Amino acid sequence: MSPASTTELSPKKLKREVARRRTFAIISHPDAGKTTLTEKLLLYGGALHLAGSVKSRRAAKHAVSDWMEMEQQRGISITSSVLQFEYKKHFINLLDTPGHADFSEDTYRTLAAADSAVMLVDVAKGVEPQTIKLFKVCSMRKMPVFTFVNKMDRYGRQPLEIIEEIETVLGIGVVPINWPIGMGKDFKGVYDRMTKEVILFDSEGTHGEAIVDAKTIQIEDPKLATILGDKGYAKLLEEIELLEIAGEPFDLEKVRNGEQSPMFFGSAMTNFGLAPFLKYFVEMAPSPEDVKNPPVSPTRPDFSGFIFKIQANMNPSHRDRIAFMRITSGRYTRDMQAHLLRENRTMKLGYPQQFMASERELVEEAYAGDILGLYDPGYFKIGDSLSTGDPVEAREIPRFSPEHFAVVELKDPLRRKQLDKGLNQLSEEGAIQVFRQPHVGNQTIVGAVGILQFEVLKHRLEHEYNVKVLLRTLGFKHARWIGGEFDEAKFERQDYTMVLKDREDLPILLLRNDWALNFVRNNEPGIKLLTNPPGTPGLEELHGKGWGF
């Protein structure tokens, strides 16, 4: 980032800076290669000189986006990372989301800060459950989705089969921008349908650790038949002709409306196909100004932004807490004052940081579309809105009803204060939900969407707060907040329910199984069973509003 200007920001400069921003998230099923793709995009953007994949031959290296110790141990992403780099005069904000399904709530929040998404599909597995779930969220927002078919260096399903599955299962038109030549050890390159050129990759290299060499050749060049062999060349021409006759034509307006997905083929592990993908992605992906129906114009001179993520202890030696803010309009300058809508107070936004995983640098200025990390002494909540001009409504970010529950048992009773601090911070960042059982002393119950969140909770309490706990799981399947008249004592006497209070002291009912849920629903007509706290939108409510940020 350049130093902050001492002169007033001109509308022309603001428009120019906003136009070069691209803010996107990567979505996929676990093990589709998302962390590897993230790292290789950084390599091509010049942010890395040597890529170190979690599965590379040099196993001592860890993926740069996996900053948490537990991520490095397991080789999976369990937190959202925010990574920034420049590429061909564009400024890229890349939001790497948790790949594990148990952490999908964090992914949903991250998608609220993105303008587009890259959907990663494993060529051998096609469309998988987590991909479907996350695509639906993108679809609610009418968010542009770019498809990257990964692992072409391995054998998998035929490209036409992948296209048909995406169109059938996800209900979106697919337009291949390039087409693969071969698969597995025979993956030689891609045909660029826009330029009608063939891009051939050099298979000799550094096992994906450096940018691969490629050469371009015209499709009509006789040398191509020699390189691919007569059979391979004839097959390529036949597939190209089929795409031209039967394929859907590319329509940028449909892409921007989330109705059509440009498709690319490649291998994140070997770097084949990444340069062609990046080239078209920065051209086709929307800048903040291209996003449909934003709540505020990105080129409005007044600054505004919202908090979409809070992360404690990114730097264990400082025990700090960072609030991640997406800028929605204007320009941010270091140490500026802004109005926090929820508390109706003006505050200084100090120590602004941008990230390369655990590495950070202070920022002098940033623009609409950018992601900043703000030092947070405990002021912010997820969804908070900040502005210097007219108030901008807080973003509606969905909350999820937990599906797994456990009693927290402290091994050393003298560490109660540290436990409370840890649970408070981790619940504020959305890692878990904390409840208490009325009339049962200090007993704390935690809820999570996925069971792996409990493992992460134990690990983080021990390594970040020096607190060891046992988690005794409870045999309940559903949690519902209560609306309407509620006789608490009546439900405390049942063995198929448990009454708890959340952090806001709102009653929440745990139900042992589907039968219990249906029984209460059918026999207590005066009670509303809510999947979200009263006044907090869930996915269905946001879908009804179009979730158009």
TrEMBL record:
Pfam families: EF-G_D2, GTP_EFTU, RF3_C. Coiled coil: none annotated. The keyword Nucleotide-binding applies. Its main location: cytoplasm. Gene3D superfamilies: P-loop containing nucleotide triphosphate hydrolases (3.40.50.300), Peptide chain release factor 3, domain III (3.30.70.3280), Translation factors (2.40.30.10). One of its GO terms (cellular component) is cytosol. One of its GO terms (molecular function) is translation release factor activity, codon specific. InterPro entries: EF-G-like_DII, EFG_III/V, G_TR_CS, P-loop_NTPase, PrfC, RF3_C, RF3_dom_3_sf, RF3_GTP-bd. It comes from the Bacteria. GTP binds at residues 28-35, 96-100, 150-153. It is found in: Cytoplasm. One of its GO terms (biological process) is regulation of translational termination. Keywords: Cytoplasm, GTP-binding, Nucleotide-binding, Protein biosynthesis. Belongs to the TRAFAC class translation factor GTPase superfamily. Classic translation factor GTPase family. PrfC subfamily. Increases the formation of ribosomal termination complexes and stimulates activities of RF-1 and RF-2. It binds guanine nucleotides and has strong preference for UGA stop codons. It may interact directly with the ribosome. The stimulation of RF-1 and RF-2 is significantly reduced by GTP and GDP, but not by GMP. This is Peptide chain release factor 3. It comes from Bradymonas sediminis. The lineage of its organism: Bacteria, Deltaproteobacteria, Bradymonadales, Bradymonadaceae, Bradymonas. The gene is prfC.
